[in-house]
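Annotated sample (chain length 482).
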Amino acid sequence: MIAQLTQRIEAWLRIDPNGPTSEVMRARAVYLIGGAFILTQVINMISMRYSYGGFTLDHVISVVACLLVFATINMLRLHKTFWIYALIFSTLIIAGTFASALPDKTGINSALLPFFVLGIITNGFVAGLRSTVVFSVFALASVWFLFWISSNYAHTPLFDVEKFADRNFQRAVQTSLAIVMIALVAGVFSHHMHAAFAQLETDIETAEAADRDKTLFLTTMSHELTTPLNGIISLSDVLSEDHLTPDQREMVGLINRSGADLQGIIRNVLTYSQIEQDRIAIDAAPFDLAAVIARTIRPHMRIAFAKGVQFDVQLANNVPPVLLGDAARLAQIVDALLSNAVKFTERGSIQLSVMCRTVDAAARSDVSPNAPDALPLASLVIAVRDTGAGIPDDQLLRIYDRFRQGDGSITRKHGGTGLGLTVAQGLSQIMGAQLAAQSRVATTPGDTGAGSIFTLALTLPIGDPEAKSAISAEPLPSLQAA
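Output written by the structure step:
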């Protein structure tokens, strides 16, 4: 509740939570100190009504002060020049001090010290070391000015100046010493605090620049590696058709599979760098979803069957024959989900299911960015289920983090870059889809209820069925082990 209230206040005051840390901290100091001042004045006015028995001039002063502070807080919507806020608060504090001391000629009293402390702290948080020093000098001058005023009256309502002159002088000295001590402490903390924030912002900018350079390097290297890798894979394909001994054919197959694995890693790195640089463009071309699924699952089926894991595919009969969207990006998402399932499933089964619900164009509320307005839509749910070990709840929220796997130890059994699900999540968001995950960790060896479910929900326009003949389609492969 407090977090939501803070977000609403800062949204109203146009405080960017992602802006410079120093600016956010100063802005928060302005409205928090101002809000605390208004709250204390409300309590003070209630107390004065009880003490004075009615509405007095002091109430008017408090109301005016609260209005001025409220107006000052709302100035944050217009600009973030923080020395102005420090000056306004300092002026109100000094004015309030003199208003409480001068009319009754009370001179120096202990009630003045908290006002000066508040002013020193406010300047330290809002404006920094210089503002703290300037206010402290004004506070010291105010103390001795009030001492001079009280010493020039023959009699005050509270005390006889001549009789209590020594005590009045000692109050001024003690107040001055307290101001100096607080100013030194607040000044040192303010200086180091603002210096730390400035260094933090510099480090963040340096890290972001380094991250951009790293992303650019990854993009360049991915392109450079792709060309020779394609040559290796192509030559191994050609070589596999030659007359080879069984051992040679096995080695050529190993080269081909290793090249394909490396090709997938490079593709993920390249896609991730494009997502980081906001350079992903989503196409809207007609495609056959069944053909896309068929091409995508082939390599994963081979690996699953080699491990003795059952691989099932369920494609709903009502899936339109032609959809409009980016088939390559959709295939990349499904490929990442299947790769994750195959990698972490040692026994049991993996299931890929596609469900569909047609949505009338007039009733739709969420449309793909490149979707023609007149076309009806298909609401698709692509789910990948596995019977792997499962993902603990505390790690389930981090599986989309870059370069991270559920098991992050150095000696983890499974390899990979940890980019597959990150890329899938990034592409899903760009396509206007939602990728969700559910999982249950195995409690005992052979626990059949354990495993994970990744669900991709997306909406795509339905294309012209007559265009299917122009699309390169292929049937789903046999689900029997080779």
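Annotation: The beta strands are 285-287, 310-315, 323-325, 349-359, 377-386, 434-440, 451-461.
Annotation: The radius of gyration is 36 Å.
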